[in-house]
Amino acid sequence: MSFNPYTQLIDVKRWADRGLYDTVRQNLPRLTSEDRWIMLRILDHIHAVDRIFQHHLLGLPHTFKAARSETMPELPALAQSTQEVDEWYSFYVRSLSDDDFLQPVEFTFTSGKQARMTRGEILLHVCMHGNYHRGNAGALLQMRGMTPSRDSITDYIEEAA
Predict the structure, then answer these.
(1) At 102, which CATH number?
(2) Would the CA dihedral through 118, 120, 122, 128 be positive or negative?
(3) Quick one: pLDDT at residue 159?
């Protein structure tokens, strides 16, 4: 298979998610209970969307009624599940042919609205959505005087070198 940007985007997402969870684990005791709740809500939302779109890619139904869990998971369980789903995306993106990225997928949003996106668009959405909300988490950490994890593609490339 030839190089495609989706593989690198998923690799950066997996790396950045891992870095964020490491940073949150180290700093969680320093956050207020309200900030901890906000942080977990951000992490859960990223993960819920990842799982929802994983199901769409597989053509399987999911149980989410919204883009978050009905019950807030604890950080260790959320971190473990995020790592597993990130690994799935890494394997999945590498299993696709170039033509597969253009294949349309029909699904239903949690709002009930019907939708259609290509596999590539779904992967791009998952990566961009996670990036946006990791920025929210990083901003919360910075507001409380903590250093967020590195999460840009240039950071990833620099660290890999």
Answers:
(1) 1.20.120.450
(2) negative
(3) 87
